[in-house]
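note to self: the first set is below, dont mix up w the second
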Amino acid sequence: MMAGIVACVVLLSLGAACLARSRSQHLSVETLLVADRALPAPMLFILTVGEIYSIGSIVAFPAGLYTHGISYGYWFLGYLLLAFPVGYFVGPAIWERARRYDACTVPEVFGRYFGSVVFERLTAWGCIAALVPWGQFQFIGLRATLGMMGLPGAPAAGLAACAVIAFAYVALGGMRASTYVAFLKDSLMLFGIAAVGVAAICAQYGGTGTYVAHPVVFRQPAVTDMVFAVSTTVYQGVGFYFQPSVTPYLFTARSAQAVRRAMVFMPLYMLMYPFAVFATYFAIRSLPPLRDVNGVFFHVAGMLLPPWVVALVMAGAVLAGLLVLAATSLNIAAMMTRSIMPRLAHGHPRRAINLGVILFLVLALVATAHAPAIMLTALNVSGYVGIQFASLWFVVLLDRPVPARVAGGGVVCGAVTAIALFASGLSVGGINPGFMGLLVNCAVVFCPLWRRKRVT
């Protein structure tokens, strides 16, 4: 029954994508990538939260709390709360720059601002380096979700089916199709997380006596933990909307005012996180230790809810992974065909983009077999590279006369610093490695401007 319900929901999502295609008079490259820059504020809100709150909200967030304790929740929720006010101010400005340069991808904005095709190509490679782990993150989450369903041949066959469905979303309508699917996905995710959270509260405090509560002693965060939480909140909150995994969705808006209106309601979606915390706390307090921490949320759901509700929870998680996977593969393919190898797309741009999507999905599917058990590593690498593009956006939005080689050098230095600190395990007072990398990045980019002003 569980597999049947999930399959029905996935088919319903394909119907939503077909509906989006039927309402588009033509399917041009602009329609595919930026929905003709025509989404009003409500649809932009649905698309953006649909892409931001990925499968990690159900899989990675509870797993992080379960593994690392409450200090993980501090920065995870903190940076989201900071990101939305920042997005309220920078989001409309990003949309204005994309419209000014008639850009459908992030590298096109940079290449046309700096007036360099080579720089556009290099930033495209950098954006892809940030997006590939993010796409891999979705596949790993889908594998964890499908593994909980206990189907024969899963998750290998299930992951292959997920790749086909993600491609179908792209082929049917691109970003516009993602908007229609996001509405269904958001509804199921909110319902599923709230249902599990409420069930956990009732089981823990309802007085039924079914579940034995074990004493739990939470480790109090050390000073370095709090330094990490604060630095991560600032680093990811400020840089959130400058990531290649988030920025392109702003390009789809009808106007700068639509972006601003959508940002006002973004924090409302965070109401689901307290329920995820309740479910994780129940697992820590009332369940034996779990070997697969990525499945902690589904373990709680399976113990407390009837099978049909668990199936809807899993369907929401599957749609979350599929939706972000489709958009990520579309962005990667667009950068490959428009910025890195534009000659291959000459005459048949849509076909080239679809081939790029297929290539990425196949490679990511193969790589998933060798992915780490904990998904946070892939997410960290994506953030360490992606947020370094914030310095380029600072230059573009502030219209500063920075040479392309200096701007590119800053991004490279920042990414190398962040990844080196993360890989070596070297701690600088508990400060997030990505924050250190961003400081180095901005120093390389903006210190020459400061010195030039002093000389003049």
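second set (the one i keep forgetting abt)
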Amino acid sequence: ESGQCDLMLISYLGIDFDCKGEQVYRLLDCTLTYLDDMPLEGQTLRYEISINSFAKHDQNLLFFFNYECFVGNKMVLKMDNGCAGFFSDEDLSQGKGVIHTAQELELKEKADKIKFPPLLHCTKTTFTRQELLEISAGNPAGCFGPEYNQQGKNPSLKNAPDQFLMSDRIMSVEPHGGPYGLGYIVAEKDLAPDDWYFPCHFKDDPVMAGSLMAEGCVQLLQFFLLHLGLQTLVEDATFQPIHGLPQIVRCRGQVIPGDPKMTYRVEIKEIGLEPHPYAIADIDILVGDRIVVDFRDLGVQLAEKTGSTGGGNLLRVSKNQRKAYSGGEIKTPDSNIQVPETSDRQLAADEQMIWEFALGDVEKCFGSEFAIYKGRSMQRNPNGDLQLISRVYDLHGKRMEFDEPMTLVSEYDVPEDAWFFRNNSYPENMPYSVLMEIALQPCGFISTHSGAILTYPELDLYYRNLDGNGTLLRNPDLRGKTVLNEVKLLTTVASGNTIIQTHRFSLSCDGQIFFEGDTIFGYFTGESLAAQVGLDGGKKAVPWIDENASDSSILLDLNSVDYRKVLGEKPEHPHFHLCSGQLSFSDIIRIVPEGGKFSKGYVYARKEVNPEDWFFPCHFHGDPVMPGSLGVEAIIQALQAFALQQGIGNSFKSPRFLPVLSKVAWKYRGQIIPQNKYMQLDLHVKNIEQKEGQVVFTADANLWREDLRIYEIFDIVVGISETEK
């Protein structure tokens, strides 16, 4: 409704002396560009408007204008190419509406149809007003079906309330319809002469405000984003305009009290995932068979709220409809879930083929379609000490067919005296980072086999983990055992030069599931990785200690002779110390005993990045990058250092660290490569409790590549117990 400011100015200039009450104001054209998120309650909008020129067409005065809208000193919206005029009732009744040009129609006819697979599937194609009001009430499941229940996530993804709901029914929704193959919606709104908005706009000239028509278009685009299931990619988002996108409006008719209804025709022309899930559409509004308003390039995105755990970039997907988990310890399940024996399984890849995937000829593992990658950068499995797949069985699903899930079963033969057992403080414990790699590496195998990377055969794409969670259900001794991993590739979405895939994994040993979770991987160009802005959208976020200097902080230099006194192995406590060798990921650690955002303890750690670090050539061949799992391991060690320095295990005769049955969630929005100088991390202890003969620590953590925050870990847990004899 900010058009009121041009009305005020043109009235001040004396337009009524020209119109003499015989003509009324109507907007014809404008281009709106949002530069920031929508203003919030309590803020003040300031407009600066300029009328730039006038023209006379027959008896009609036209004027051309623009404005800028500010919140404080920040411009949030600008309007360019504004054109409005003054018209008689006869002029308005003879209007022919928006006439699409031959060029516009030809572009639609020749447009390539692109398929975007919905992340959630709704069987309904029509919707009533009451169902649309379920979205207004924050209950998308009441509109679309139970699969759309988000278990408390995204409470702000609502449509406008009853009075401002500008559609009465959705006549049809076609997710793959329209000239671009990305979606098509037809919706209707009934009109009555006594509708509330007619007498408000204007006195003695009742007409529906163009702003309300725009609101109806935005609501339908919001509806479509939810219909596709794009809300599963975010945690706590709001609907926002797409910043910097010019949205073109043409008005060539009016909606007045005598009109029975208006119809919306929505053509989705673009769907994307970066930096937030979004859609862009062209929308016509019709009265009868006449297009009265035409919107082009209307865009809506799902942007995480500032400060939410969802971050400012990609993406978290989970199609798992289990009750939301709030952190903390998980009880061991009572039932012993059995997994199938391997005797009847079909071998899909043996040790030699896995080696080819890691270091050799990828074509020999996945077939001739991958011959195009000879001599090029290509997704690889980790190799050497980080190769944690032995073979793959039972690979089900057809390459390049993404409508149905794809599944496999992998096996890893765990050496009884593996390097990661030797380097760990207690040799029966498998490090959490190794557990993560066993879970995640088969996801990379199934991603490659799916052929998703072949969507863009001309591009060199890089494979990266984005999000995930893992729930430890049991803590078996895995030395000398074979671990099975049942992996399911759930969804694949390609947009721009990016591909996003969601997976589920389930690890078992001796017939019992002990670790399971969900994860998201993506394929990105090198340019996209180089331009990553981290978890804070490019804004600087520093470790807590940088803004909270403390006299009580304790510095531990892990390269000094004093290290062993505090964190190293002691004869009386042979298993109560930090990991060593290849599992050591910090140079210095700083502890603030009662610091952090929970005031229960804080740890800062830093490691100088050495281009010769052992993990770079292992992960990956031709694409050296530090595994995110090792960043998680560094965080676990920082939490262990806090326990050691604080002497929390001294009540035990022979303490040891042990994994705790719990759920851990991670989010990665950046990478550490050999060219980087250092990494730093911090963690905030949020809970310390003693129960059942254990002391359990829980913390939230962050990790920086130099000064860019790129990892976020929730509910990392470390336990201390008596060493079993």
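remember for set 2: The mean pLDDT is 90.
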